[in-house]
Structure formats: C-alpha cells, structure tokens
Write a structure and sequence with these properties.
The chain has about 230 residues and is mainly α. It contains ten helices and no strands.
Length: about 230
C-alpha cells in the first residue's frame, strides 16, 4: 500500500485510503487472527497461549514490527507466532494443524464482514451521494482484500507462517523436522522473494480468486434491495 504511494502507482486518494485500511488491519484484525490461534489451542487443551499472555485482543501482545511494516508497505505480512505446546493436545499433529488453520479462517470471516460493510456503504452512496459513504466503501473493500491476502500468505507452507504447521499433517515427521531445521534460511529466502516480487503473481492470483467468491456471497443480501 505505502509502496504504491512511494512508486506513484494508483491515485493519491485510493492509495491513502488503502494505507489507512492497512493500519486498521494491523491494529484491529491481526490481533483477531492471533487470538483465534490462542483460543483454539486453549480449547484443544493447551494453556500455553493464556500463560504467555496471548489469549487477548490487545494488539501490543501480537504485533511483530517487521510483519506490520510489510502489511503497510505491500498489503500482506504476519504477527508474532502464538506459542503452542503440541504435547498438550490429544492428537498433536491434528491439534497443531487446526490451531494454525484458525488464523487464516478468521481472516476470511473478517473479509466477508468487511465486504458486506463495503457493499452497504456503496449502497448508501448510491441512495444518497455523499463522500463519507464512498470513502467508507473503499476503506472496507481494501480491508477485505488485505484480510484475504493475509489468509493466503499465511497458508504458504513456509516457516514461520501458519501453512508450515499445517504441512506437518501431510508429510512424514522425519521430512518435516528436516525441513524445519532450515527455518532461519527459509525465512531469509521468503523476505528476498517478497521484496523482489516473485510472490506477487501467485498471491494476486489466489487473492483475486478467493475475493471473487467472497464478493459474490457478500452481494447476495443486496440483490433484493436494488
């Protein structure tokens, strides 16, 4: 988002609204993503997130500075991983996968809510042309897109993203632990891929596809109002 402003992509108004939506996501929806991890882990029998102060919606407990900067710069990023002790789950592999999946699911639910709010604002703008409704519609639409981007990005099977924990459910343990031994190098490679733009195409393709489905669902209530 901020990168678009700095490189002159898009008009100033749209980019600034997108930037505001990015900041909103960092402080208001990233905490929900991490809280979802903590809540599901707790329900599955692990009290580690609660003892570490992560069973909360307080953004200060969850925000990772680098991940937050990435969201503001490019529209996707991450927060501090919620500490989980898999040995406290009845089924450690399934428990870790379900806990990891909870975060992206929360983003998709939020994306649907924000798209509904965007449609409502634009519907009100159609009925009563006012700048506040137009800006609100764009703001919530950007918030929906960023949440879908976060869900897609976090499902990549790359540590420390959620997808790397789900990966343990589908590959043998010896290969998984071998893979995780190179976590620090994989993270550096991930940053490099992000900043040279290699991930832009797959992220955009998946985000647009999922956003299209969410948009269709969110439009259903408004079909009967027009």
């Amino acid at each position: 988002m901020l990168l678009d402003l700095l490189t002159g992509k898009g008009d100033m108004t749209s980019v600034l609204i997108g930037l505001m939506a990015s900041v909103f996501v960092v402080f208001c929806t990233l905490p929900i993503h991490e809280f979802a991890h903590a809540y599901v882990a707790t329900k599955l029998g692990d009290d580690t997130p609660e003892r570490r102060g992560r069973l909360t919606l307080n953004p200060l407990a969850h925000i990772d500075p680098m991940g937050a900067v990435m969201i503001i710069l490019v529209g996707f990023g991450y927060a501090k991983p919620v500490p989980v002790n898999a040995r406290r789950f009845k089924n450690p592999k399934a428990g870790m996968a379900i806990t990891a999946f909870a975060g992206p699911v929360s983003n998709l639910v939020l994306a649907l809510i924000f798209k509904l709010l965007s449609n409502l604002a634009l519907f009100l703008y159609f009925k009563n042309v006012a700048l506040v409704w137009q800006v609100s519609g764009l703001f919530f639409n950007y918030a929906a897109i960023i949440n879908v981007s976060l869900a897609v990005f976090n499902l990549f099977p790359i540590p420390p993203l959620d997808g790397s924990k789900i990966l343990a459910l589908v590959i043998p343990p010896k290969y998984y632990f071998k893979y995780m031994q190179y976590e620090r190098y994989i993270i550096l490679a991930l940053f490099a891929l992000i900043f040279i733009g290699v991930l832009d195409v797959p992220l955009a393709f998946l985000t647009e596809g999922i956003m299209g489905i969410i948009s269709k669902i969110a439009w259903i209530p408004f079909k009967f109002l027009l």
